[in-house]
Amino acid sequence: MEQRGFGRLRLPGLLALLAALGVLVVQAALERRKAQTPRISASRNQNLWPLPVSAMTTPRLLYLSPGNFFFGHSPSSKAGPSCAILQEAFRRYYAYIFGFDKWPLDSDNVARKMKLQKLEVSVIMDPECDSFPSITSDESYNLLVQGPVATLTANRVWGVLRGLETFSQLIYQHSSGTFTANESNIVDSPRFPHRGILIDTSRHFLPVKTILKTLDAMAFNKFNVLHWHIVDDQSFPYQSITFPELSNKGSYSLSHVYTPNDVHTVVEYARFRGIRVLPEFDSPGHTASWGKGQKDVLTPCYHSREPSGTFGPINPILNSTYSFLSKLFKEIGTVFPDEFIHLGGDEVDFNCWKSNPAVLHFMRNKGFGKKFEKLQSFYMQKVLDMISAMKKRSIVWQEVYDDEGKLTPGTVVQVWKKDKFHMKLRKITAAGFPVIISAPWYLDLISYGEDWTGYYSVEPLNFAGTPKQKQLVIGGEACIWGEYVDATNLTPRLWPRASAVGERLWSHQDVTDLGDAYRRLTRHRCRMVGKQTPSR
Amino acid sequence: MAGSTLRFSLLLAAAFAGRATALWPWPQYIQTSELRYTIFPHSFQFQYHLSSAAQVGCSVLDEAFQRYRDLLFGSAAFRFPHPIEKRHTSEKNSLVVLVVTPGCDQFPSLGSVENYTLTINDEQCLLLSETVWGALRGLETFSQLIWRSPEGTFYVNKTDIEDFPRFPHRGLLLDTSRHYLPLSSILDTLDVMAYNKFNVFHWHLVDDSSFPYESFTFPDLTKKGSYNPATHIYTAQDVKEVIEYARLRGIRVLAEFDTPGHTLSWGPGVPGLLTPCYSGSHPSGTFGPVNPALNNTYEFMSTFFLEISTVFPDFYLHLGGDEVDFTCWKSNPDIQAFMKKKGFGDDFKKLESFYIQTLLDIVSAYGKGYVVWQEVFDNKVKVRPDTIIQVWREEIPVKYVKEMALVTSAGFRALLSAPWYLNHITYGPDWKEIYLVEPLAFEGSPEQKALVIGGEACMWGEYVDSTNLVPRLWPKAGAVAERLWSNKMVSNLDFAFKRLAHFRCELLRRGVQAQPLSVGYCDMEFEQT
């Protein structure tokens, strides 16, 4: 990764020395995986979540007055007022910090105190204002908070977004109504590039508004991937342009669908928060709802030589299956701009395939013997090839690797089975495939009490392997499957439990103190509660 | 029993046939048919029968009519177009309500009669009840009988219902000490309780963590003991509002002031009230339960409970008495001296009994009855024979089923909560286990069983505040509600699942954030604001 520019920071004021130290730290930190122990300031008033790589504060208080504070672009910044991502973020964070009221412009009653009047944002490289975030997006930033002008410096807008969130967490409103921030210098970058939340809109439909709220909360926790498990057995809410019958027949009802416009709204809302939208169209299992709107796509199951009237996984032996899938995935590849598509591939039940004479015949012809894993591999390989041909990359659930599929190099494997998952990580990375970890982070599996500590205490790289293998762990995802979750309980089930995962994936490996985490997370929860309901 | 079995099979058959599958909790007797009547929102009204003891001006019913009108048709009922097309079905344009006994300004009580009958046929559309409380239950049932066709027309089927509760005490406990619940959360909960025919709001107001109840005799309790004396308190006005809101829905407010344990938050506001704990021969700076060795303690309790007895109109108060930790008492030399003086030996249960008995005498003198947690019984405190014992421990000292037998064989009335701690969440359809609890499944005589006056679903607040209260409560608490209202034989899980899933969608339609029971959808999903 190219990292120029930070050297050009001008650092006037008291913090020059601290800042110089910070630059050293950021450069070290930006060489990912070589990061040093985080420098946590001795000051206990920090409530940052997730904890930055380095955060130094002084006891000196800066006073902000809502009528006399603004975000702006540094003259030397490569981004300016035409950068919509930043303009929108400025407005958003102003409201998060000061509330949604209109403040009188001269409500400045802290005359003789040290004031903080401006946060000046400087983007050093091509800001990527009009791009979508990607797995390689640079999210590092450097935040120097001092009076009267604080500076936020980043290589790209993505780092600015992360830095604005941190900035907002530094500001504290006293019971008197006064806003203050401690003088600080923060240098930060993520530990893992893929930090996701999986939502499931098939078991229960989630209204678009609920998804957008989730994206907001993700940004508060520096998550950067929304893994959208959009369809499954129960319903097919994705409205396809090419195959409209899929949702016409396969959704719970015609009001339980995501129109192309809805999807566009989600993707764009996510982009403005530096969040990628990773669509999952899981097959060949978990596809019962596809069968209602697409004739012959599922395998007819047999019972004593007669079709039983029930259906199994996608029918892997028909050419029509592949021409359908090819068109569908072509559309998906266009609708979702991300480089990755999640192809699923989990929990394929072979019973129906086993019962079907045509499938058995096909198996014999192909020389698969009785190994239905080979049939699944045959199917997955065809779909993987479609994705490669579109110049996109695939993510699959771990079974696709277990089943010894001849995986296209570069295919990402998502590990979800909790049992011995570290062993699995070792095996898959030894074979050279990148992995995403979800196994310890199934947040839908609730239990009584403080279960966040369990999620927090997971160390993703705690497996025997070479540094090269560890490099292949690109991150993790907290999953909130939808069997018992809909818009009524999604938010309290996700937050702040998912925040524990958020810090594990962002902060340094050594940030593991449960007591300190509890203290910060409690504050962070109050902050999130405040942001969700516009303050009055 | 033969008679009721026959009745039950009848009602099951009826249920599967028609729209009545929407009812929750299931009535004692119901017969419905496919014959339906149209209801036109613009002309429909609730009316008092000419010979009803309650007439216009009856606050409980006047307000209920308004509420159910809004629930059924929305507050903009008059938007619905006047029908011009030919009417194929006959129409019902009013529900006539006939209450036999007057009493619109009273509070509901343990003895309130909640029976009602609902008769909807060609001749009439009548709700008949002994009291206004019964009328409230009947109105809820009526509102659940009305359904809407895909075209938007409202219908009600020909129906006969005769209904009454199985148990008179059907409660829900909220804990406003571990986390403060805004007034609106409490009021909203009372609404949903009424939809489920719950009739007791057990308000666990204060505990170790905070003291949000604003006392006018001891304002320092709240000033020093609440999380935030400006915002996290219940003022006298708030409490009044809760009581009246509950009354209008036929719900009693059972206030709990738990002592002598669970009282840490009382300490800062009342110096000397709590026992100073000792480490060796010196006070350690920490405090234990209420100090039972001082006269001041009882003077304070006298004054405090005089206030509580006045503020809360219900005949019963809940005095707590659970989980008293003896460690601190044991460490304190003054307590040890007091024990010696009283001849209690090393038995701290005797000290606890002494405290509780004195407290019970104080409260009795104010003309109140009381409910206590089971420890008071377990520790053999001498209590008045009309004391109600609430059973909450699942396994220890004995299984709750056994405890129910013990409590009732000693002649006390019992309330069951042990299997209904709704704050203990687990993955999956955990409402089933809650639903299948049979409160009378213990060995005992019919007289003993008659002493079980009901039960309570408890939502303790360690991990619950207004962010997650509603989805954790509903529809799960509904399982308890039906167990306490409906016939014992209504226990088929499939039948319950269908109705409860339907009822949860109805709750969503009414704006309640009730969580799903399984996969699926509702026509009207919960919308975030």
From TrEMBL, chain A:
It comes from the Eukaryota. This is Uncharacterized protein. The gene is LOC101112162.
UniProtKB/TrEMBL annotation, chain B:
Keywords: Disulfide bond, Glycoprotein, Glycosidase, Hydrolase, Lipid metabolism, Lysosome, Signal, Zymogen. Residues 23-145 form the Beta-hexosaminidase eukaryotic type N-terminal domain. The active site is at E323. Residues 167-487 form the Glycoside hydrolase family 20 catalytic domain. InterPro entries: Beta_hexosaminidase_sua/sub (IPR025705), GH (IPR017853), Glyco_hydro_20_cat (IPR015883), Hex-like_dom2 (IPR029018), HEX_eukaryotic_N (IPR029019). GO terms for molecular function: beta-N-acetylhexosaminidase activity. The keyword ATP-binding does not apply. It catalyses: a ganglioside GM2 + H2O = a ganglioside GM3 + N-acetyl-beta-D-galactosamine; N-acetyl-beta-D-6-sulfogalactosaminyl-(1->4)-alpha-L-iduronyl-(1->3)-N-acetyl-D-6-sulfogalactosamine + H2O = alpha-L-iduronyl-(1->3)-N-acetyl-D-6-sulfogalactosamine + N-acetyl-D-6-sulfogalactosamine; beta-D-GalNAc-(1->4)-alpha-L-IdoA-(1->3)-beta-D-GalNAc-4-sulfate-(1->4)-alpha-L-IdoA-(1->3)-D-GalNAc-4-sulfate + H2O = alpha-L-IdoA-(1->3)-beta-D-GalNAc-4-sulfate-(1->4)-alpha-L-IdoA-(1->3)-D-GalNAc-4-sulfate + N-acetyl-D-galactosamine; Hydrolysis of terminal non-reducing N-acetyl-D-hexosamine residues in N-acetyl-beta-D-hexosaminides. GO terms for cellular component: lysosome; membrane. One of its GO terms (biological process) is carbohydrate metabolic process. Disulfide bonds join C58-C104, C277-C328, C505-C522. It is found in: Lysosome. Its EC number is 3.2.1.52. Pfam families: Glyco_hydro_20, Glycohydro_20b2. There are 3 beta-hexosaminidase isozymes: isozyme A (hexosaminidase A) is a heterodimer composed of one subunit alpha and one subunit beta (chain A and B); isozyme B (hexosaminidase B) is a homodimer of two beta subunits (two chains A and B); isozyme S (hexosaminidase S) is a homodimer of two alpha subunits. The composition of the dimer (isozyme A versus isozyme S) has a significant effect on the substrate specificity of the alpha subunit active site. Belongs to the glycosyl hydrolase 20 family. Hydrolyzes the non-reducing end N-acetyl-D-hexosamine and/or sulfated N-acetyl-D-hexosamine of glycoconjugates, such as the oligosaccharide moieties from proteins and neutral glycolipids, or from certain mucopolysaccharides. The isozyme S is as active as the isozyme A on the anionic bis-sulfated glycans, the chondroitin-6-sulfate trisaccharide (C6S-3), and the dermatan sulfate pentasaccharide, and the sulfated glycosphingolipid SM2. The isozyme B does not hydrolyze each of these substrates, however hydrolyzes efficiently neutral oligosaccharide. This is Beta-hexosaminidase. It comes from Ovis aries (Sheep).
